Amino acid sequence: MSETVIKAEKLSLTFETNDGPVHALKDVDLTIDKGEFVSFIGPSGCGKTTFLRVLADLETPTGGTVSVNGMTPREARRKRAYGFVFQAAGLFPWRTIGRNIRLPLEIMGVPKAEQKQRVAEVLELVDLAGFENKFPWQLSGGMQQRASIARALSFHADILLMDEPFGALDEIVRDHLNEQLLQLWAKTNKTIGFVTHSIPEAVYLSTKIVVMSPRPGRVTEVIESCLPKVRPLDIRETPEFLELAHRVREGLRAGHGDDA
To answer: Into which CATH architecture does domain 1-81+158-233 fall?
Structure first.
């Protein structure tokens, strides 16, 4: 029986602004089980990132309920139940890659010997072994994002929340990082929530694709992937992949139609 890690029921969030209320999320019902790779896709402003930020206790919902590992998002944050990877790598330029990865461990008071071991482990996981003493400006954009992922993995959280981490990268680098992320997921069995605007990326990576509508952000469809867990890049040329991408595209189109 699957273990539920994230559960949202009638989740809503309205921002009060000078121009009136903005309904970012409305009546979102969603369940994510342990070990799933779930992508969120939809037009800009549909609430994809807002939903991740609610899970991370960076935004407070105005209606409904949400739990992370059976706790409130605030309790989950205090228990360090998740790592968060933002759109920009967010590395401190004056700290080496190793010291950037160490930062959450330093804050947590992890002993220095264990810090060193964990840094070595996660650098190996993201294929950056040997770059510990480099500074962020000495690395490419893709390598910086891998270092950001390593930092999110360093404190052994079971959940990884990723907000368009590869959106600013060129297609060749993005493909490579997509492959590496799937390998990382297979090795660690993390539960991953991944925001993207790319249909091929969502289909390639995910076990489940959550299609969201324009504001107010609602879940219009949850599409289960039929693809095998091991996915070479050329799987994107198969009929099964193309059919799944078509379903996602139709779901996005239908979501827009709701507001027409």
So the answer is: 3-Layer(aba) Sandwich (3.40)
